[in-house]
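Researcher: Dear colleague, please comment on this protein.
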Amino acid sequence: LEQILQRRAQQAFRPGTVPDEVIEEIAEQVAENSGDCRKALRILLRAGREAEQHGDSKISVGHVQSVGEEN
């Protein structure tokens, strides 16, 4: 799951925008619940949008936790 997220982050975001701890947090959240890769990718996308809305240059674990609660 982490490898898939890492690849997608490299394709969809600028370098340095998605720290490793963000990938790990998303993978952990999803693995605890469903293990559904699609859900993990949705969280990554939503966390990126959340960061952008707040004018942040990086996605944080806080962004992930915020959008993870919505799922």
Summary: The mean pLDDT is 94. The radius of gyration is 11 Å. Residues 37-53 form the longest helix (17 residues).
